[in-house]
Design a protein that fits this description.
single chain, alpha/beta, Aminopeptidase, Alpha-Beta Plaits, 2 domains, eight-stranded mixed β-sheet, four-stranded antiparallel β-sheet, 11 helices, 41% helix, 22% strand, elongated, Peptidase_M20, Amidohydrolase, Peptidase M20 domain-containing protein 2
Length: 414
């Protein structure tokens, strides 16, 4: 990546950011605990929405509640004119497990980044606007897809957020997370097979077995797995397969998730999987209906400038983030922040919180780790790094131009 000079004002900004975040740390911990102890699933995050909005309003920020047509989205903004930097706050939880993905930490790290950036802007006469965007329904609900459609990112120059994970490598505690990385694109498909019922003992020949179609689909996909890329993933469940053991099933349903490194590869693999379903329907004499189970989440297109700046900023607080522009880290999760990265220059880093070895995301153990004071303190630290990165986009014309050039160059690689 091309080198550009760093304005001297950024050093002063780092101190302002740190002081601002430290000053709000205790209040943000209260918000963190409220969200963590009261998990709400996608599009039901009413308490989280209200808790954050109330905090912002009491500190004098104008907030649009129920923003962009979504009841649990919000938008806060500070500044005038100039470029726009948006920090994305997530706060939805998983069914049953609760905050097993640590979205409570995403929320408070983005709030911290917003407050830190505001503090620097109050000391600067430069134009620019910083936004805190409340983003519901990341866990399969496609909240950011709806925000994109509603124009939430239409004029944004950079969008940033960061996600908690278990340690990258327990044997290397000096690595605090990943700055330059991506994830898998993902989509979900429902295949419903319709057959004909009959008595399973008296007249089975008169029936058309919908469960046979689902079983054949499962087997066909299993065979397909031999001929897909190592990073591809196909996961299937059968939510429906009949109503009684002595009746030929007239209806069955498969839910399938398809993941690949890029959106283009995902769409190609999805077609191959759907062909497995069509072949099974044809072989068994069933009819088939396809429907969307999860809107497509694209891979993350990490912006080189933003990722490098964040990693450099975190070095000031003695935290090392992996940022090798020659070797982009591929993680197996999926997020609708990927869709945002196709629209505007974006940063979606990962930061490690303390967990025992073997603990993974979407588990009760990670949920418990995400609720600790130690995890909260780490979230405050990465909030500072995001604020420093966002402020440079607003303050430094050369850097903002670099970020935009990185984004435009990436378009040619998709």
């Amino acid at each position: 990546m091309e080198a550009i000079s760093r304005p001297s004002s950024l050093s002063a900004a780092a101190h302002q950011i740190s002081d601002a975040v430290n000053g709000h740390e205790a209040e943000l911990h209260i918000i963190n605990e409220k969200i963590h102890r009261n998990p709400e699933t996608c599009y039901e995050e009413f308490q989280a929405h209200d808790v954050i909005v109330d905090f912002l309003e009491k500190r004098g920020f104008g907030v649009i509640k129920n923003a962009f047509g979504l009841q649990t989205a919000f938008l806060a903004e500070y500044g005038q004119g100039g470029r726009i930097v948006t920090f994305c706050a997530e706060y939805d939880a998983l069914p049953q497990i609760g905050h097993g993905c640590g979205h409570n930490l995403i929320a408070v790290s983005s709030i911290a980044a917003f407050l830190g950036t505001v503090a620097t802007m109050k000391e600067s006469s430069s134009p620019g606007r910083v936004q805190l965007l409340g983003c519901p329904a990341e866990e399969g609900g496609g909240g950011k897809l709806k925000l994109i459609e509603a124009g939430a990112f239409a004029n944004v120059d950079a969008s940033l957020m960061i996600h908690p994970t278990p340690p990258v490598d327990h044997s290397r505690p000096e690595i605090a997370g990943i700055s330059y990385g991506t994830c898998l694109s993902a989509c979900g498909v429902n295949a419903t097979f319709l057959g004909k019922p009959s008595h399973a003992a008296a007249t089975p020949w008169e029936g058309i077995n919908a469960l046979d179609a689902a079983t054949l689909s499962y087997t066909a996909v299993g065979l397909l797995r031999q001929h897909i890329r190592p990073s591809d993933r196909i996961n299937i469940i059968m939510p429906e397969g009949g109503t009684a053991h002595n009746v030929i099933p007239e209806r069955s349903r498969i839910r399938c998730n398809v993941r690949s490194e890029t959106a283009a590869q995902m769409n190609s693999l999805k077609t191959r999987v759907e062909n497995c379903f069509k072949g099974a329907a044809l072989a068994t004499g069933c009819t088939m209906e396809l429907s969307v189970a999860m809107a497509p989440y694209t891979d993350i297109r990490p912006n080189e400038g933003l990722c490098t700046e964040f990693a450099d900023a975190m070095q000031k607080w003695e935290r090392k983030f992996v940022c090798n522009l020659e070797d982009k880290v591929l993680s197996a999760f999926s997020t609708d922040m990927g869709n945002v990265s196709y629209e505007v220059p974006s940063f979606h880093g990962n930061f490690s919180i303390p967990t025992a070895p073997g603990v993974g995301l979407h588990t009760e153990e990670f949920r418990d780790a995400a609720g600790t004071l130690e995890a909260h303190k780490v979230a405050m630290g990465v909030g500072k790094g995001m604020a420093a990165t966002g402020f440079r986009v607003l303050k430094d014309e050369q850097f903002a131009s670099l970020v935009k050039r990185n984004f435009e160059a990436d378009k040619k690689l998709r």
